[in-house]
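Example (one chain per record):
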Amino acid sequence: MGILDDVTSLLGNAGGQAGGAAGNVLGAVQGLIGEQGGLQGLVQKLQAGGLGEQVKSWISTGQNLPINAEQLQQVLGNPQITALAGKLGIDPQQAAAQVAQFLPGLVDKLTPNGQLPEGGNLLAQGADLLKGFLNKPT
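Predicted structure:
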């Protein structure tokens, strides 16, 4: 199963959200990762914010530890979450909750060998493929 299949599967299991809404969250998460300097930058920020054990579990090949909206808001800050909410057209608490729901599985799928990818932005590549898939006419 390739990264596109993994991300599509992750979106399909996203708490009953419609594909379009899930795709919007994925796009917002992609933007968030880009704003943090890529996947490595986001991982470093989360680790520095006290979420090291959770992040380690997402990257490793074991079970993913969850995070909640409050933890995410605390580490990223209210301005970042508010901007993300604006992109999604929802309130900041909902945005933080949705990102907290997606992020562990997404990081897990983007680190299939238990290591952060080296070189190019793997998330951007996977998300671009997914966007093309979601935007195809049926």
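Caption: The domain at 3-11+18-131 is CATH 1.10.10.690 (Arc Repressor Mutant, subunit A).
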